[in-house]
Automatic annotation (TrEMBL):
Main location: membrane
Region (Disordered): 1-23
Bilayer topology annotation: Peripheral membrane protein
Protein role: NDH-1 shuttles electrons from NADH, via FMN and iron-sulfur (Fe-S) centers, to quinones in the respiratory chain. The immediate electron acceptor for the enzyme in this species is believed to be a menaquinone. Couples the redox reaction to proton translocation (for every two electrons transferred, four hydrogen ions are translocated across the cytoplasmic membrane), and thus conserves the redox energy in a proton gradient.
Record's protein name: NADH-quinone oxidoreductase subunit C
Record's catalysed reaction(s): a quinone + NADH + 5 H(+)(in) = a quinol + NAD(+) + 4 H(+)(out)
InterPro entries in the record: NADH_DH_suC, NADH_quin_OxRdtase_su_C/D-like, NADH_UbQ_OxRdtase_30kDa_su
Stretches with biased composition (Basic and acidic residues): 1-11
Primary gene name: nuoC
Source organism (scientific name): Streptomyces lavendulocolor
């Protein structure tokens, strides 16, 4: 067992093709620190211009046990009659972490294979996190799963995407029962619908709450305060000090 994600990996830049920087896919250009417009950015970073990129696919060899896991997963899927390229959209090595981007229709099979194959044995899913990239057209909503192998002392990530217009992802509760509450929370805050979940309900926000508070396009401010009839203005209406 080791706390390092991939201790055998050479950390030379030439062996990390998925690094951020000039690599990867640009999904938007951010202006200012928080995206406020019309003088609402009071952070002092109103002139900041930054390219936001998703890490690109890595090229073999990935290094260390990353190749072993990738080979075993692809081989196990082939044994089940599923082409790996149909299930695995891309493999990313970024910041010394291994991420498989999975087509959502094959998520359950891939997760079950990772859990049950003796050479893989990722027995534990520590949860699912939602991400919203409004500029990633057709893939605005992402679900990220962190899988840990207690047998082999390894940690990997699975990622699936869905469009805003069809925010459905298969539930993994049948494979990893601990995902029950994590999927509910992700649904509550991001609006990702986990098909097959035994009881998908909001757990933080009221049942009749409109919208999903952790999406990037969720309105900030403008919520009436309960005393003296005051109202907090939205960020783009606040006074600018720059």
């Amino acid at each position: 067992m080791t706390d390092q994600p991939n201790p055998d990996k050479d950390l030379g830049a030439q062996n990390l093709p998925g690094q951020r920087g000039s690599h990867g896919e640009e999904i938007r250009v951010q202006r200012g620190m928080f995206g406020a417009n019309n003088g609402g950015d009071t952070s002092g970073y109103g002139g900041l211009v930054r390219s936001v990129r998703l890490p690109g696919p890595a090229a073999r060899p990935y290094g260390g046990w990353f190749d072993e896991v990738a080979d075993e997963l692809e081989g196990a899927l082939e044994e089940q009659g599923l082409l790996p390229s149909s299930a695995i959209e891309k493999t990313v090595v970024d910041r010394d972490e291994l991420t498989f981007h999975i087509a959502r229709e094959h998520l359950v099979r891939v997760a079950r294979t990772l859990r049950d194959d003796p050479a893989l044995r990722f027995e534990l899913c520590t949860g699912v996190s939602g991400v919203h990239y409004p500029g990633d057209k057709g893939r605005e909503l992402h679900a990220v799963y962190h899988l840990r192998s207690l047998t082999h002392g390894r940690l990997i990530r699975l990622e699936v995407s869905a469009p805003d217009t069809d925010p459905h992802v298969p539930s993994l509760v049948a494979v990893y029962p601990t995902n029950d509450w994590h999927e509910r929370e992700t649904y509550d805050f991001f609006g990702l619908v986990f098909d097959g979940h035994p009881a998908l309900t909001r757990i933080m926000m009221p049942d009749d709450w409109q919208g999903f508070p952790q999406r990037k396009d969720y309105p900030l401010g403008g919520i009436p305060v309960e005393y003296k009839g005051a109202q907090i203005p939205a960020p783009d209406q606040r006074r600018s000090y720059s």
